[in-house]
Design goal:
There is one protein chain. The chain is of the alpha/beta class and 300 residues long. It has ten helices and ten strands. Strand 5, helix 6 and strand 6 form a beta-alpha-beta unit. The longest helix has 16 residues. 47% of the residues are buried. The model has no long low-confidence stretch (mean pLDDT 94).
Length: 300
Amino acid sequence: MEALMKDCMICPRKCHVNRLEGGKGYCGQTAQLFAARAALHYWEEPCLSGTRGSGTVFFSGCNLKCIFCQNHNIALGRAGNIISIERLVQIFLELQEQGAHNINLVTATHFVPQVCCALRQAKAQGLAIPVVYNTGGYEEVGILKLLAGLVDIYLPDLKYFSSELSERYSHATNYFEKASSALAEMVRQVGRPVFDETTGLMKRGVIVRHLILPGETKDSKKVLRYLHESYGNDIYVSIMNQYTPLPHVAQHHNLNRRVSQEEYDRILTFADRIGIERGFCQENETASESFIPEFDGTGL
């Protein structure tokens, strides 16, 4: 872990900062674990949230910092508490005790070495529920390999096909290149989806999320076609319409409105036409700030 933190190349940004000595790269985080919330969460895909909720741990900082991010306060590191690896182990076990169907690691990319340590310790102490790695998709394959055997379910975004869009909105021209390679590694690790026959909950597998952005349906179609042609029924695809225009994007072209019902219907029709069978869709009311949790240190 120390070597990875001393000259940080954990994500595609490859900042080369010494996080052990307090250096901060693009993600804005040192080697100290920084998290904003740990609690049961009921608004993931049904096969993750179930009836008792997904045990989410929201980490602060982000290696993408998309300009439209709904969790921008924690993405920018403005909210959160420093916690130790030992405390993270306890949090995992507490969430399991509360009845969580799984442990859901939200935006943990920049803390993968520490999270690996915590997961090994937690599993040795009785953590038995599936572990979900919930990511924006901008990952290094070599770092993902550290998670092999520790993560059961991968929940990545595939945000863009276009490098022009990924540069405009996430300052990452190589997003698709890195995210598609990362997805291949995720599928290699956990294989085809496996569900509990009684509860319908996912035990292993990959769910790829794609958030439709207003005015960008052409790119969404390219993303969905790529996913279907590359993986077919080996993954699930979650087509999301929950984009919520927050005040800080009011000046950005296209981003100052919600996705229209016509845009969303067009994408769902396209997905059906190209043969996507394993997927999730959302109702209109998901596009609301009320679905954004309070990042107030709960559970830490």
